[in-house]
Amino acid sequence: MEDLQSLREKINRDGVEKAEAEAKSILADAKAKANSIIESARAEAAAEKASSEKAAADYAARAQETIRQAARDTVLKVEAALTTLLERLLVKDVEQTLADEATVTALVREAVKGIVGEAEVAAPAKLVPALKAQLAAQGSITVVTDETLGTGVSVKTDGGRVESAFTADVIAAELAKRLRPDLAKLLK
Length: 188
What we know:
By secondary structure, the chain is of the alpha+beta class. Helix content is 72%, strand content 12%. The protein has a 4-stranded mixed beta sheet with strand order 2-1-3-4. The longest helix has 97 residues.
């Protein structure tokens, strides 16, 4: 019986040892699978994080570019509005100046000063008498009425092939063209 008892104990011990070995093997496999799952999850999380960070950086770059473009467009619109306002003010001021008979006659006298040969000065009806009186000494210059000019005058030389216009629109446009670079500098 003792042999049987010792055989039972040996079978028990062998069974327990085998069960413990099997349990250790199962536990090791489980730990290995868990570590593999954890590493896979970490790699996936790192990839997702990198992808999210790239997407966020791309979005921020696009947003900055959009803001830069909006700022540039705003400056261009303000510049255009100011240029238009400046041109309107210039036209108004030049029209006021050209409404002054003495200023216009002085301008015409200066414009025809170096002309050799015949010339024609066109002006609104209200300026024609004053211009004829000022230019009477220069017999080769004819003064004619042209109501389409509004304010200002035009001078035609070389048989009408060369014409210089001194109207509010022409003078204001030239002044505005010369002032635009300075206006652009102020807006930057």
